[in-house]
Write a structure and sequence with these properties.
Blueprint lengths: L2 E2 L7 E5 L2 E6 L2 E6 L12 H19 L1 H7 L1 H4 L4 H10 L3 E3 L4 E3 L15 E8 L2 E7 L12 E8 L4 E10 L4 E5 L7 E9 L10 E7 L3
Antiparallel strand pairs: 1-2, 2-3, 3-4, 5-6, 7-8, 8-11, 9-10, 9-12, 12-13
Helix pairs in contact: 1-4
Length: 214
């Protein structure tokens, strides 16, 4: 209940209708009722989910920015390749269920283009290395023996990435990657080819999950 101290035109204290009266530094102050914001300080569940997705995908792409800068440079058209890769991947980048939100790793790409991928690739692990073999392919504008291979190894458990840029030529039909820090752990593997001058890139492809053996 509000209290009028000197009649209807005088000051008052406490709540009166939709306003509150109080005394502050010798003056009578009238303010509207405070409105309580029902949104938690950390935001709604949807806002928290969006922030988590933004942070998780950005960290993944920025950790391999050298690969992304080459692989999405043409698609970025003078813009930021990492931002372009983020926009391209975001729609299919996550697995969301009642328990967790995590990266949909088989669907992520770090490179887009027309250069052909490897033919019938096989992958094995031994002595802290992952060895990849592929078959020879007919030569064409988008498939040259001089094309260079790029690789990405991602450890989902630790969040660590190892990448190998312009590591070997397509014509070598083989690559052996030293991933000894990941011995006894499973890692996700990706690969792409680019033209020798780097002006043309190929789609990065997900090769699968493999355990690194000692």
């Amino acid at each position: 209940m509000g209290i009028l101290s000197t009649g209807i035109l005088g000051s008052f204290r406490n709540k009166t209708g939709a306003v509150i009266g109080r005394r502050h530094r010798g003056q009578d102050i009238m303010t509207s009722l405070y409105r309580v914001n029902g949104t938690p300080k950390e935001g709604t569940a949807k806002q928290k989910e969006s922030r988590f997705k933004f942070s998780t995908l950005n960290i993944f792409l920025n950790n391999i920015s050298e690969l992304v800068n080459a692989g999405f440079k043409k698609l970025a058209k003078g813009g930021n390749p990492v931002n372009t890769a983020y926009s391209y991947n975001y729609g299919h980048a996550f697995i969301v269920n009642e328990v967790e939100i995590k990266l949909n790793l088989p669907q992520l790409v770090y490179s887009k283009g027309n250069v052909e991928g490897p033919e019938s690739l096989q992958m094995v692990s031994q002595d802290g290395h992952i060895t990849m073999n592929w078959l020879e392919q007919p030569q064409s504008l988008f498939c040259q023996g001089s094309d260079t291979a790029n690789f990405l190894i991602y450890n989902e458990t630790t969040g660590d990435s190892a990448y190998f840029l312009n590591y070997c030529d397509r014509s070598g039909l083989k690559a052996s990657l030293d991933v000894s820090p990941d011995i006894d752990q499973e890692v996700h593997c990706y690969m792409s080819f680019a033209s020798a001058d780097g002006k043309m890139q190929g789609n990065s492809i997900y090769l699968g999950l493999i355990k690194v053996l000692a």
